[in-house]
Design a protein that fits this description.
homotetramer, alpha+beta, 12-stranded mixed β-sheet, 3-stranded antiparallel β-sheet
């Protein structure tokens, strides 16, 4: 899957001199890919399709329902927009957005799905809710129909069984059984660039390239993590996680053991949750290829805990 | 402040025959304004300015930080984008977005501010955090600088004292004292239209007209509530709030005491939180005027609990 | 393909009483479909794929290149965005937008393609140009490579032969042979609603539903025509086209021969250009279905000249 | 107006070693500002305010009307969105966009204004047209009211005299006298960065910082020129303008007289048209400051013809 250098916008060799001698790896598209792996965890994944009278309204509701959901460390869930669905392919013939909600604990995931659908989709104009994983054997029941106060009734929209709930804005339709699968959280890779703008452009290109890959999300704002963390703290005992200081470019000169390669001024991390191993792997592949196509990226790496914590390993050498 | 009928797109008199005889009120721009009031509550309001290298990144981070924050009934806070700030006016010369977070309880508000800034702004590429209410006498300290694990340091950006926290993406700057004021939550009005598309267009026009009013937000998706609720339930004892059945157009024929005017097919509610009474009142004024400019709106009303619960009353007769 | 009434948002029968007795037709989803046809013309169609480092930049350049291109009556061409292409499917692995340019005269089309690519794509940051119809037997040569002033050279991006043109921003790549086919211009239908907001919402829903249909564009702003015209004028001899007065709702009461149905307050027209008959027909089908799903639409019709001018006829009875 | 280095995201000194010894200038925010000037021309400027029922529709129509309008070398006019207007400040209480159209020849400007308003605004849903320069002493009459075919009539919207033209979508309102002033075209500056992504990020930041400056536009796609040109050609006699080869980074190694500084991989140009000298100067000031705040920008320069062609000079030393 080697892309030719034309993707480098015709300026070859810029990064040739800047190979990072200290770490083992191989070259892809003039970028050093470190010989390491991303470590990831088990997590439950619910998938929900939101439709509305316009794509804009479907997306606005989806953004609200998946907001404040970057990491389960500080949020109730990890969530994001997965992909868009054309009216021709959507459950009710209207523009649709497929969202994903993720949590290691199934019960907490269910609570979050219910709260987020109740607060952000039921309240949104013209939206409807459909099960995004109709083939999943495991399901959770959202019980939003009680909001109808007895005036709700069961009906069908095309092939889907739904509750119709009378509302001030019209009727709200919801397929209350939402499919759940055991998926993966925490797939990741690092993008290291010669300027912040370079690393940022590559990170955004990586996210954009995987935007519509089905079955995977990047839950952080714009899909990019600017402040990757390490577990615990050197100085503040009460902190569960603090800045990953060995990867901070502004600390390179002060820290002899800094892991920031020579000439790198910014490192962005892409974190991926997915419904299964292959979806996460595909996103890592496509994202790394997109990032490497930007001139001025020196190195790609990934984060792990030595393989001790997460059962899933994604070796960059296998992926790129 | 009477606008002329040209805003009705040149088709006069459409709504003349549909005045709702049952409720008292007055006509504005051919729309019946009911003689009632909106009832609102005390709430603490924090205001935060987010800057970034592009407006898009500032807005994306702001959307994440203010997501899942429609109503404190089911969310940790009520939050939303307040207004945009040009680079020329922003604290650090970059595009900025001012957001608002609201909660009746000051301690819970502080927890939410910390969590949402830590999870959604600190993690976002190129963002910085500034106090949006520098003149407020009351402040909360967000303590995000501990993330720097001892590598953080204090500095100045123009006239603001900030912490600089080394991160993988560069340095994160934050003004840790965030101003808080005692404001108002729950200002509201209802928009009733002859079709759902008409009421929806009017609701969106109302929200758009107040989008950049400073000191007030509409925390629901797209700023519009499609499923206004009543307290409690007729049928399900375990439900705290259920559909406001007397205002559901699809139930009008079944409920003799329905409050849906003749010919109305959809009712959308606009809910407003603000830093003070006047800001909420101004948003109600501007929003109602915008809604009434759409042909096919029959009536404007507002929600209250008979004046028993909320200390703040907004009389439509004073406002329009 | 009859959709069930659940798409009507649960409020049945709204439009039952408003069937337009004067014109023949049939009912679809409670909307009267007039027994008429759209009349369309031959036109040459060029298709071009624009890629860029971000989707946003590709789209911005595409909007510029297809601007001021609603109708060949007053613009140099008819043009628009056809569909979006994922990095995985695009010619060079980057986000892409496929645009279409249309003109009845092949020579004028070529001039427009050259001018619009030279002024709006060559000048845009990071964009590249690829042939959108590689299988078309007919091609036009754009000769943009002369801009390279002798420094240009031929190379390959994946399987495409391109010119590389050194520029201040890097290198510009262009596949200079652009495929052309004989297609169709002027497919159309009318959407008639009980309020302007209703007709507008239906028109926008129609456009949104066909947004990603390949091989067809709606060249007017937002894909919607607000001021459909008749040929010539009753009063001003020097005017080639004037307002289609018999379809103006505000004139209904003054014109005994008005064709505006009772209760209709706004009529929007959707005009479609496509690479072939079937693509235009599919867009008409999907668009009419989407429009009819909005409550308050009373009638769908189409525009023709009695079959005397355009060789292509689209009968609504066959399409819906 | 010196900004402090905190805008450099805390990484000082990156560009210190890369000062371009060959050209005279001074340092601003660690960037070399060349001692040169931008040369600009006289041009007539028309300003038009477009309102619509939503901001999105106003903007969509404005984009269409200002499309294919980057440079008068190959387009009928130079045009762009100038700034946004809140409903509270707009002529009719609805969201508005102010656009600018520019041409050195007054007659050609008038033709373009008429054609672009007729094809792209009159046809767009719910739009209206107002004079954006009501205080200008010089005016052009657009005569669009003839489209009404005798059914048009004169009326007032607030304090503006308008024609009302019956249309299929409702009524179209237009203030037919559009103000014109003698302004300036071709203000410019160059942004030179260590990678393409760096120069691009700086260019977009520059454009974003001036987005809402009143009285000036950047007419190229995204406001950025990627392929700055020289007059004439070394090789192709029939070409009026070709690539500015001395500023092409990919040619630096081949051309001994290359003007590309050491280490620069991309140069983007920002071109500005404005209603007067001061507006263009302000945009140059704000844009250069924004560009210099991005780490990895090495030099700012500007384009001129030795002062022989354009009567207006903008010296960078006076501006920054």
């Amino acid at each position: 899957m080697k892309q030719n250098n034309n993707n480098k916008l015709g300026i070859k060799g810029l990064t040739d001199e800047i190979i990072d001698a200290g770490s083992k790896g191989f070259m892809h598209d003039d970028v050093l890919i470190e010989d390491t792996f991303a470590e990831a965890f088990d997590a439950y994944v619910a998938s929900i399709v939101i439709t509305a009278v316009t794509r804009d309204l479907a997306e606005t509701a989806a953004l609200s329902a998946t907001g404040f959901a970057t990491s389960v460390i500080g949020c109730g869930a990890e969530a994001g927009i997965d992909y868009h669905i054309s009216p021709q392919q959507s459950p009710d013939g209207r523009p649709a957005v497929s969202i994903m909600m993720v949590h290691p604990d199934k019960k907490q995931l269910k609570e979050q799905v219910i709260d987020r659908l109740a607060e952000c989709i039921l309240t949104a104009p013209t939206t409807r809710v459909f099960n995004g994983l109709p083939d999943a054997t495991e399901k959770m029941t959202t019980t939003l129909h009680y909001f109808g106060d007895g005036f709700e009734y069961q009906t069908k929209i095309r092939d889907r069984d739904v509750w119709a709930i009378p509302c001030m804005g019209g009727e709200f339709f919801i397929e209350e059984e939402i499919g759940v699968v055991k998926g993966i959280a925490g797939g990741n890779f690092y993008i290291m660039g010669v300027t912040q703008a370079t690393a940022l452009t590559a990170a955004l290109a990586a996210v954009e390239s995987v935007w519509e890959n089905h079955g995977a999300i990047c839950s952080f704002p714009a899909g990019v993590v600017a402040s990757g963390s390490k577990i615990g703290s050197l100085k503040y005992k009460f902190m569960k996680a603090t800045t990953n200081h060995l990867f901070c470019p502004s600390l390179k000169d002060r820290l002899p053991d800094s892991l920031v390669p020579e000439g790198v001024r910014a490192i962005y991390e892409i974190v991926i949750d997915g419904t299964n191993y292959d979806n996460v792997k595909q996103v890592m592949h496509d994202g790394i290829h997109a990032a490497c196509s930007i001139n001025g990226i020196k190195k790609i790496s990934a984060g792990n805990y030595g393989g001790k914590l997460g059962p899933h390993k994604f070796y960059l050498r296998d992926i790129v």
